[in-house]
Amino acid sequence: MRADIIPRGDVWTPETNEFTVGMLFRDKETLIYAVKLYHTNKLRHYRVIESNPTIWVCKCVSDCRWRLRASTNKNGYFVIKKYDGPHNCLLTVTGTGHKNLDSTLIAKHIMSTVREHPDIKIMAIVDLVKKEFNYTINYKKAWAARTKAIRMLFGDWDESYRQLPKFMSALKDSNPGTIVVWNRIRAANPDEEYMESVFWAFEPAINGFRHCRPVICIDGTHLYGKYTGKILIATGTTANNKVFPLAFAIVGEETSIAWKWFLKNLRRHIVPGREDVTLISDRAPGILHAVKRVWTEPREGIRGHHRYCIRHFCANYYKATNNQLLKDFIWHAATKCHQRRKLNADLQKIRELDDKAFTNLMKEDITKWTIAHDGGKRWGIMTTNDVESFNGLMKGARSVPISACVQLTFYRLVKFFADQAAEARQMQTEGLHFPRDVQEKLDLYQSRGMTHQVIPYDWDNLVFEVTTKFHNNAGINRQTVKLNIPTCTCGKLEIFKIPCSHIFAAAARVETTWLPFVASEYKMEVYMRVWDTKFEPIKHPDYWPEYKGRTLLPLSTRLRPPKRGRPESTRIRNEMDVSRQRATKHCTNCKQPGHDRRTCPQRARIVQD
């Protein structure tokens, strides 16, 4: 019988309140789910009497007449042939648990939630079960339910590896221009091979990045599930300061070899022949070695630039000194001092605070951590927060089998492109000449420029001295503006590639336009080109191109070893995971920092008295 034909009869649905003779179930699994759900709601227990591929019989665990017998009909459906119900016994469920409310029943119940949020918190599942069934399940059962729901939705982990080459082939067939690069290991069987790593990037992202700022943030994060591994991610930043996913790779570990392979693919497929592209990353040894060999000092080919993520840079010094004030000073020196004279003043404060830390800081490449010496290579982007925020969005994809992981990256980028293109069209409809974030900054600088005093020094070369007024606790400052070059001694034009308030003031003084001083990457017509290339839907599996390659297998060395007890997070936590509000302990007794109520000096005096 065809699967799309529904036979006549009373078909069970989750809303069914009571069973009847002749009621139909699509298969045995659905029948068992229905009986479990029934007993969970009725606060009763049942036990199985007989079970085989064609017959399933159960009865109440108490001295009760309730009994159900079902078997298959000629069409393969399970049908209730005999039913003695409802229950006439007393309630058999006491306390907070129900033995028939097992992880399989919960998994089926939460499948729609897990489909949208594969990384749903375990306690959220506990709360959901409490709300739906009025039972409190333990953490282990909720974890098992989520694991089973993922398997039901996204398939088996090992089979997912075998399906991955077929899906990648279908992806490239539906979306020409998609880049997929494999790193495989030959197996003993000539028809099989092991996956070492895989790199992929989508054409809309590759084409769109050509119209973005030439800055790429890179980071890696853990994979969860049956097999260990890391996912490496490269992102850009749009003119409207939104994260722009560029490329992905799944590797075994974040080694220098893995990073070199990833960066070579970035250079070859994402920015081929493009100069002055800047990488921003943390200072993990594997990344630093790979960046030097592939990006900044390659033996041949185009060279790029490298800058440190200042968030990680400051965290390194905090870890070494445990000095929050030092960390704040370094952050301010790195990100807020656009002029070298201001940077020197901050460096002197750091020296007075911790001379050893200052000595170590001076050994660092100053172009890689200070915006004053950056030369505009960062375009004002100081951290890898964008890629880390995208890691958070990818957490669901990191919890599913590998084929589903790649699929989720595809569908999330489809949604991202659709949403951002719609927002860009809306800004264009509103008549904005620049993306909203850029427009707001330009409006702010222009309004400030109206309060500045401008003194011309050289009309032929358009050299001016611009004096600011006292505002926001900042004193009167003088900057030199040269519109012919153009440049301003405040440094913001070189750093951000948009005119500062001093440029606005000087341009107004000579009644000339300031538009040429805005980098083309910020202009609306260029921003619209970011979203020009569209994604295409992936064809139905029946129409996928035939795959004739070897069977892909996971490496057995990456099989995650089983552990007893509550599963542990693989994230390496550091001080960046602790909010500033909670970084310092405050006593609930005397309200003073540095201790808690158990070690409070006032409490000690009270006990002595």
TrEMBL record:
Pfam families: MULE, SWIM. InterPro entries: MULE_transposase_dom (IPR018289), Znf_CCHC (IPR001878), Znf_CCHC_sf (IPR036875), Znf_SWIM (IPR007527). Keywords: Metal-binding, Zinc, Zinc-finger. Coiled coil: none annotated. Residues 479-511 form the SWIM-type domain. GO terms for molecular function: nucleic acid binding; zinc ion binding. Residues 587-602 form the CCHC-type domain. Residues 587-609 are annotated as: Disordered. SUPFAM superfamilies: Retrovirus zinc finger-like domains. It comes from the Eukaryota. This is SWIM-type domain-containing protein. It comes from Liquidambar formosana (Formosan gum). The lineage of its organism: Eukaryota, Viridiplantae, Streptophyta, Embryophyta, Tracheophyta.
